[in-house]
Design brief:
It contains seven helices and eight strands. With 198 residues, it is of the alpha+beta class. It has an eight-stranded mixed beta sheet with strand order 1-2-3-4-5-6-8-7, with helices on both faces. A hairpin with a 4-residue loop joins strand 1 and strand 2. Helix 2 packs across helix 4. The radius of gyration is 16 Å and the shape is globular.
């Protein structure tokens, strides 16, 4: 049923990156997000436990009205939705925000995470007045740490025993990318590369 809806309704793209595009998140995307967040690996890596579909739908609806965050569906060039990315806790005065990403398990390990993070930081620094974009993840989440390092993020420290998940305490890595570090990156910017280009 999800696949039929995806095929029948092309999404309006609002931002493009290298190999991916972003579409504004819609309440009807709650089913996709619920599925991605319910994956045991993703649930562990992002430190959240799966919620009911109705709870995810309420959260998506509530987040749409928040002025300090932007949520997007990550799309492949053919329009296939493969993840949810967000720029949260935006403080336009201080120029700070936090990035969050969850990908469909079937599309992990293919470079899409790096493409999505690159596109979002290009949006944060190229279109928004951000000076610092932060990311937080478990120190054991090697996939996310690799994606963030590849996008230029620098690990600033570790919050020891900061996350309780499934009865265990986890250390949390804090990483950030500053505007001047983004400016020094030699990769093409999102607006320089067609969505199908790699």
């Amino acid at each position: 049923m999800i696949e039929e809806r995806e095929a029948a309704t092309p999404r309006e793209v609002c931002w493009r990156g290298r190999g991916v595009a972003f579409a504004p998140l819609d309440v009807d995307d709650a089913e996709l997000i619920h599925g991605w967040r319910s994956d045991p690996v993703a649930a562990h890596e992002i430190g959240m436990w799966p919620r009911s579909l109705s709870a995810v739908r309420e959260r998506v609806e509530r987040d749409r009205d928040e002025h300090d965050r932007d949520d997007f569906l990550v799309l492949l060039p053919d329009g296939t939705p493969i993840g949810h990315i967000a720029l949260t806790d935006q403080d336009m005065v201080d120029g700070t925000a936090e990035i969050m990403l969850v990908l469909d398990p079937a599309h992990r390990g293919r470079g899409h995470g790096t493409d999505a993070v690159d596109a979002l930081v290009d949006l944060a620094f190229g279109e928004l007045p951000m000076h610092r974009v932060q990311a937080v993840t478990h120190t054991t989440n090697t996939g996310a740490l690799g994606v963030l390092a590849g996008a230029g993020f620098v690990q600033e420290g570790v919050r020891r025993s900061a996350c309780l998940h499934r009865g265990r305490r986890y250390d949390v890595a804090v990483l950030a990318l500053l505007r001047e570090e983004w400016q020094e990156l030699t990769r093409p910017r999102s607006w320089d590369v067609p969505v199908t280009g790699r």
